[in-house]
Specification:
The complex is a heterodimer of chains A (231) and B (316). With 231 residues, chain A is mainly alpha-helical. In chain A, 70% of the residues lie in helices and 0% in strands. In chain A, α1 (8-18) packs antiparallel against α2, α6 (93-109) runs parallel beside α8 and α8 packs antiparallel against α11. Chain B is mostly helical and 316 residues long. Chain B has helices at 4-23, 31-47, 52-68, 82-92, 97-116, 130-150, 156-168, 174-188, 190-200, 207-225, 228-247, 252-267, 274-277, 279-283, 291-315. In chain B, α10 packs antiparallel against α11 (228-247), α10 (207-225) runs antiparallel to α15 and α11 (228-247) packs antiparallel against α12 (252-267). The chains are: A mainly alpha (231), B mainly alpha (316). Chain A: It comes from Parasphingopyxis marina. Chain A: Keywords: Membrane, Transmembrane, Transmembrane helix. Chain A: It holds the Pfam family DUF969.
């Protein structure tokens, strides 16, 4: 029974998130609770937490792109992205995001997971383009609709990444699967594993792709007429 | 050889500048909180390997303290007005996209060149981090191009970067913190306990139910941990290998590969996967930090069902 005590840390996370407390506080409280109930003393927990934080610095290194993106925004990058879409005939938000989904899945399948991402592509290009395309077919977006368009832009980036990357043989998750099976005496090659990522990648493309096209339609249902004299 | 550390130094310089400019930004009532937060990150990037485990732990506690007690504000560095931006974008035209594309193209073309031409034998880059290092290279090239072409004030890259950084705020380190939490969970044996529970509810002799518990377990445990990598060793050891592969004779590569992807469906539905779900919401300045997850559930649930069926039909 005492084993189950270490699960208290999970409870801390769930309750903390539900109460909308600051996630950094929640995570730290969970780490300390889990470590101490798992038999470590306070200093050991803080040390383990610090070591793992240091080893994972590469996760936060992507923020170095912000000065470039910010600089381009200063000169109208987001506005330009919108203009391009407004000039394109037949570019709906759904079709645009569908194209991005293909791009993201294919590049991820080639192992190029960090060429795109929320900071690299979604904020400067994909989200403003999607928003402009939605406004083009639908007129002015309500705040709630705008929120859904932005959310869908980021969601498409994630779906493309997750269900493309495992087709690449040398990605961390494939190597992890290989490693785990090897410890139990199953020698699998990365290629054997990565081909079985293809059926799910296809399902992901059809499921998310049709949601994108349906999203177009759900927006079109409630067209807000453009105000007179508006460009 | 150019290693990951060079990239850390670049990040260190960036955060040092964010910290210094924040400290002097009188538009931000909490400017010293921001300066301390970005400054601590700069210290982490430059000197993390010299601080020792406890030193890093204390650094983390300081970051958490600053964020948790609301000491971070938002600076409003000087930038262009919306109207100016419209005019500039008309004037500069589609060439504006070029610097933005330099970053992904450098990473993309560079990685391909490095992996498939003799250039790769030069040993110029640390093998494991080629794409990330090239991404950093792309950032520097793009920055030089922008400075030469647009001739902004010299401090503009720092101020514009800081404008975006402040809008993300503490969420910028949440992914790294969650990865650290995963390490503590592993040390305390959380995975073993979850595995015991999953085994406990497994009915005997029913392949479909075993597949169901394996895939749902992957998704649920991934939602708790925010990372399918933490869930996979547990579920593979508890159910995937002993029951699905050994008892029922399922195809091991299918069970491994699609099991992991069932976990990825969980990643789409949890705020614990902060870098994918919470950070983009902050970056896009959305009203709700759960706005991205809300749009992903509709894909994640049917896809999880597909994965369950795929394992059942392809592995057996």
């Amino acid at each position: 029974m005492s084993d189950y005590l270490v699960l208290t840390g999970i409870l801390v996370v769930v309750v903390g998130f539900a109460l909308r407390m600051n996630p950094l506080l929640v995570v730290t409280a969970s780490a300390i609770t889990t470590g101490v109930l798992g038999g470590l003393d306070f200093v050991e927990v803080i040390s383990a937490f610090g070591r793992a934080f240091n080893e994972n610095r590469y996760i936060s290194v992507v923020w170095i792109v912000l000065p470039v993106i910010g600089l381009l925004e200063r000169y109208g990058l987001q506005q330009r992205a919108r203009l391009v879409i407004e000039d394109l005939k037949g570019a709906t938000m759904g079709k645009l995001l569908l194209l991005y989904l293909i791009f993201r899945q294919v590049t991820a399948a080639l192992g190029l997971t960090s060429v795109a991402g929320p900071a690299q592509t979604v904020r400067p290009l994909v989200a403003p383009m999607a928003e402009a395309a939605a406004e083009k077919t639908h007129g002015e977006l309500s705040e709630d609709e705008r929120e859904r368009v932005l959310g869908m832009s980021a969601a498409t980036d994630n779906v493309g990444l997750f269900f493309g990357e495992d087709i690449f043989v040398a990605i961390a998750s494939i190597l992890l699967i290989q490693g785990i099976f090897a410890t139990y005496g199953y020698e699998l090659t990365p290629l054997q594993l990565s081909v079985w990522a293809i059926p799910t990648a296809i399902c992901a493309f059809f499921i998310h792709g049709s949601r994108l096209l349906l999203f177009d339609r759900s927006l079109r249902k409630t067209p807000a007429p453009k105000a007179e004299g508006e460009q | 050889m150019i290693t990951l550390y060079w990239l850390y130094a670049l990040a260190g310089i960036t955060f040092t500048l964010f910290a210094l400019f924040s400290a002097f930004d009188r538009t931000n009532g909490k400017r010293f909180g921001n300066a301390a937060f970005w400054g601590l990150l700069a210290v982490s990037f430059f000197f993390g390997d010299m601080l020792g485990d406890l030193g890093n732990g204390i650094l983390v506690l300081l970051l958490v303290g600053l964020a948790g007690f609301g000491l971070l504000g938002r600076g409003e560095p000087p930038t262009t007005s919306l109207e100016t931006r419209f005019n500039l974008s008309a004037e500069l035209g589609n060439r504006l996209f070029l610097p933005a594309l330099i970053i992904p193209v450098t990473a993309f073309a560079g990685t391909i060149l490095y992996n498939y031409t003799p250039f790769g034998n030069s040993g110029l880059f640390e093998e494991r981090w080629v794409t990330l290092i090239l991404l950093g290279t792309g950032v520097l090239i793009a920055l030089c191009v922008c400075m030469a072409w647009l001739k902004p004030p010299l401090v503009a890259p720092v101020n514009e970067g800081r404008r975006l950084m402040d809008s993300i705020g503490w969420a910028s380190v949440l992914p790294q913190m969650l990865a650290a939490l995963g390490a503590v969970f592993a040390m305390a044996g959380v995975g073993d306990v979850i595995g015991d529970i999953a085994r406990g509810i497994l009915p005997e002799g029913n392949i479909f139910l075993a597949v169901l518990i394996y895939a749902l377990g992957m998704a649920l445990f991934t939602m708790v941990m925010g990372n399918a990598f933490a869930a996979f060793p547990v579920m593979a050891a508890a159910i995937g290998i002993p029951f699905l592969v050994e008892d029922f004779g399922g195809n091991a590569p299918v069970i491994g590969a699609i099991g992991m992807l069932a976990g990825f469906c969980g990643t789409l539905m949890t705020p614990m996967a902060a870098n994918f779900n919470v950070v983009p919401a902050a970056l896009l300045e959305m009203k709700s930090q759960y706005g991205v997850i809300r749009m992903q559930i509709g894909t994640a649930i049917p896809l999880l069902a597909c994965n369950i069926l795929l394992i059942y039909f392809l592995a057996f």
